[in-house]
Amino acid sequence: MRDTIGITILNIALPVLYFALVWAYGKAFFSDASWAKKWKSTLLAVVVLFHLFYLFLRTITFDHPPVTTVYEILSVLAFAVAAAYAVIERQSKAKETGYFILNLSFFFQLISSLFIRDLLEVPQILRSNWFGLHIASALIGYASITISAVYGLLYLMLYHEIKANRFGVIYKKLPNLETLERMNLIAIILAFSSLTFAILAGFIWLPYAFASFSYADPKLLGTAALWLLYGVGIIARQKGSIRGRTIMALSIVAFFIALFSMSVINLFFSGFHRFS
Amino acid sequence: MNTVCVGISHQTAPAELRAQMRFSAGEIRSAHPRIRALGLSECVLFSSNDRTELYAAGYEGIPSVDELVRFLMSEKGGESPIPAKSFFSLKGGDAVEHLLRVAAGLDSMIIGDTETLGAISEGFAIAQETGAAGFLLQQIFAAAQGTHDKAKARTLISDGAISVSSAAVELAQRIFDDLTQRRALIIGAGETAQMTARLLHAKGIGSLAITHKNPERASQLAATVGGTTIPFDAFRELLPGIDIIIASLQSEPHILTSRSIKEVGKSRHGQTLFLIDCGIPHNIDPFAGELENVFLYDLDTLNLMVSESIAQRRAHAPDVEAIVQEELKRLLSWYSSLETSPTVEALGKVIEKIRSEEVAREIHRFKSQDRKVVDDLTKRITERIVQIPAEHLKMGREGRLPDRLQNVSLVRKLFGLDSREDDPSDKQ
């Protein structure tokens, strides 16, 4: 019998910690609470570290990367969103948007904590570290895609508020349009880099791991299309061909393509790329 | 408190009189010896656009208000005397409360405008430099700064634009991240355009070009805001490189049409263009505002922003009033604590508490017949220890008031006789 008390405690604590984090970011955004403004970034670092420790503990205890069930994947996704946001916050030095992003982490972790089971017996293939790397980088990529879509949405909201002469909370509290565009770009670059790594790891490892591997796998094609779209988007943005509202709208479209690649293909297409 | 305040403000005098009464930093510095010659123990004088105020403290009694008013009148009266009715005066706690309200922006011409705080800080710094601000006014002005800081941190009393030009710059900052990388063009030299140009210059705008049908007016404005001039018939060629345009020409309808803005947008590869139209009638075709990545605002919109932010500031006034009362209460309670006898009494209690606790802890080591001796002995020792600072504090009564107040304050601080929150001197 393996000792899983630490995992159980962290599994209960994580949604509570994410709730506290969202609350602190919300207080800072909506009520200008000075304590929240001062401590929210520190709390973010603490929660991300706790979550990393939790994932590490699961990997060690159950002897497989924590990506074998939907609920384990949701926890990694919650972590990836929070970690990617922490990177973006640090890079852009804009701390006002955390409330909108970290709500996703809270939601993902809550669902995960409620339904997660401790699996000891998993297919040998899922114990591979290559598999862990492939999935982890893909999840960080998808988390960054989600974040870039949130920034796209926030940009469009602020754009319309300014155009419509409405000077409410959105106008007063969000970072300026250029900062939101920069944060969106950082998320896009993070998404593109992670997907590149996920695709490379997949291309190297998948043919060895699966006899039924096919380059025509729908999820692989969907991810490759997404990767291509982001690559073209980054080049176009750097060349100045598209900017502002257009690039934000494209971020949201790309998010829905990612959602399609992750869920619809998984539901309606068969292939080696399904594990549950 | 032996403090008074005399002065004129926007509530007692029109702008011309306030301008006449205004003291520059050099004038304040040179006035200090003459103010002190009136027999005042301490004084601070400051001047801003909407007020000139003189605060004075006397160690032996309340300074004469009439004498201070006469002094200000004689300093700035000149050939056109300032009527005495333009001055206001306040004494004791009322004078202190007034200073706290001014520092918090509650008494400003536009509520929440803390421009006066800069003047207060400057006046106080000069008074410290010349030795005119002593123990009392140091505490009072530190409380004024604290009131301002708390009001700013806890409320939105100073948030939002309060003029059309500041609304324009605020909008620019909601769109652009870094104004130092942006280029602005001022077309015309109307009052709002001038004010906006000055604010953009103050915010470090990357470059500022000015064009006007009258090149001399363009040169005058360029000289004041550190900009460059361009000929009026050549400004259109520069538009693709411009991020912010402020148009302020009279009787020049639609010098920039929607089509010309669209062409500019294309050559800028869709980079954001921010337009302010201060012209009457409109200098810029209003339909330009519907173009992608083009933000166009006119005076009506900017005025709407200003009225909204002033309404928001007014809504926060009651919270700031509460902060003023909280700070005033703290300051007055600190002042009353500076009496010698209560301090000696409090010191005795603290020492006695320590003695009785220590004796209670160790008394069981002594035989029962010795315990009373130990108790009496330690009591005598502590009483004699307390007597030393007590005598010095009482002897100080004959000395200068600030020395005595400082000594009392020091004893209270060293022995923790006040809770930290009740002692405004802790903030220094």
Describe this protein's structure.
Chain A has 276 residues and is mostly helical. Chain A has 2 domains: 1-127; 140-276, no CATH class. Chain A has 9 helices and no strands. The two termini of chain A are 25 Å apart. In chain B, helix 9 (215-225) links the parallel strand 6 (207-211) and strand 7 (228-229). Chain B has helices spanning 15-21, 25-36, 65-76, 92-104, 115-130, 135-154, 164-175, 191-202, 215-225, 235-238, 258-267, 299-336, 340-362, 368-395, 401-414; strands at 3-9, 42-48, 51-57, 88-91, 183-188, 207-211, 228-229, 244-248, 273-277, 294-298. With 428 residues, chain B is α/β, with parallel strands linked by helices. Chain B folds into 3 domains: 3-154, Beta Polymerase, domain 2; 179-298, 3-Layer(aba) Sandwich (Rossmann fold); 339-427. In chain B, helix 4 (92-104) packs antiparallel against helix 12, helix 7 (164-175) packs across helix 12 and helix 13 (340-362) packs antiparallel against helix 14 (368-395). Helix content of chain B is 54%, strand content 12%. Chain B starts with a strand and ends in a 14-residue tail after the last helix. The A-B interface holds A 32, 34, 158, 162-163, 165, 167, 171-172, 176-179, 182, 240-246 and B 153-154, 156, 159, 171, 173-178, 269-272, 289, 292-293, 295, 297, 301, 304-305, 308.
